[in-house]
């Protein structure tokens, strides 16, 4: 298990593709800075609940990174060296979740931080001037919102292990990234954090959202495991 | 002509092409679910930056898969080694891809508007609006401008694929190109603070589409602007691809 962790960290840190990918992604994220938001807080919360750009980013990343592992037979070699399939999957699954969270945070925090440097203060979410404490904002807003965004993207963590191929993974993940945000952020299905503020929502709702998100992630992991355990490698 | 027929054969006998067609149709249906009770907002969004991005991504998938497959499966090497000229190969690929992507581009707005019409009810006031909408020449002209604009804009994906010589890399870079261009044109078009940049990006077909198509209506001047920019974009992509492909060393 430790050797897989070390191998993953080494490969991630030394990969040229990862560096190029994150450079392009940061440029894309900076484009959201040009929007006319009232305050950095507004920009932050709007970006945090928007999963479309991070999920498109993860689609490309998972296709190129995990797809290359299958194409170069790295995973096949790990299995033939006696590593358990479940531990290989767990490492890759966790890495995808961490990368997705990083992508969400880059998309939300980098433009908000630059906006903060320009305006001098974070401001308060428009319409909620009477509330507004930053510790509350982080604990009650960022954590559940991020977890829910990760849960909505859980299909993206399964797709690379279903197809075991770069191109199919990228195309299916892009399709997922286009359809799921569209269906979960449309006017018909109001997204709970759109009008969210700690002052007017009970803490039990936060706990329920966190619990449901973690359950969805567990289900996604076991679905991927069920496919990965039965997968035949050429 | 022989190469062109060969490319056409490849397209129409490949089940992936039909899967893309079906997926674009599904995407259009899902797009209409955004707001099924209001057909106008569906039309507004299709002729907005979201609709253009989805259309361009559908077209990009077709381009990168079919052009990239030639490089990844080394069929392009075989074509060259059997005496095919690089110029004629590239011209045939360009023409064939551009022709074959049209149904995939058209089906997305068509299925979206049709499903929105069905879901919002045929016999209602919205139903009357729907029939009026699809019968109007201006709306059909807008769809034509949509297709031409997306075709011109996504011609750059062929250039990217030829530069990358790999299907996966070209898919990644083309997606980044589409997202960056859509976001940039959207911001520059809608924000007055970025007014000075408008003259620099007005050559991008997406910008002309955003500026000239208004809820399914486009005037002659706007249509000409879209076609002109798309033609320039297409020609530039073709010439650059030709230069790149001519001197490219194939692995």
Describe the protein in words.
The complex is a heterodimer of chains A (234) and B (251). Chain A is mainly α and 234 residues long. Chain A has one domain. Chain A has 10 helices and no strands. Chain A has helices at residues 2-14, 16-30, 40-48, 52-71, 74-80, 85-119, 134-152, 154-163, 166-184, 203-230. In chain A, α3 (40-48) runs antiparallel to α6. Chain B has 251 residues and is mostly helical. Chain B is 82% helix and 0% strand. The longest helix of chain B is centred in the middle third of the chain and has 35 residues, at 86-120. The two termini of chain B are 27 Å apart. The model of chain B has no long low-confidence stretch (mean pLDDT 83). At the A-B interface, α2, α4 and α9 of A face α2, α4 and α9 of B.
What's the short version?
The complex is a heterodimer of chains A (234) and B (251). Chain A is mostly helical and 234 residues long.
Q: How much is the average pLDDT of chain B?
A: 83
Proportion in helices of chain B: over 70%
**Count of extended strands of chain A:** 0
List the helices and strands of chain A in order.
HHHHHHHHHH
- The secondary-structure element order of chain B is HHHHHHHHHHHH
- Average pLDDT across residues of chain A? 78
Number of H- or I-type helical stretches of chain B: 12
Gap between N and C termini of chain B, in Å? 27 Å
Helicity level of chain A, as a percent range?
Answer: over 70%
Radius of gyration of chain A: 19 Å
Q: How many individual domains of chain A?
A: 1
> Unreliable runs of chain A, pLDDT <50, ≥5 residues?
186-191
Strand count, sense and closure of the main sheet of chain B? none
User: Stretches of chain B where pLDDT falls below 50 for ≥5 residues?
Assistant: none
**Oligomeric organization of the protein chains:** heterodimer
User: Approximately how much beta-strand content do the residues of chain A carry?
Assistant: under 5%
Greatest chain-chain contact: A-B, 30 and 29 residues
Q: Which structural class fits the helix and strand makeup of chain A? A: mainly alpha
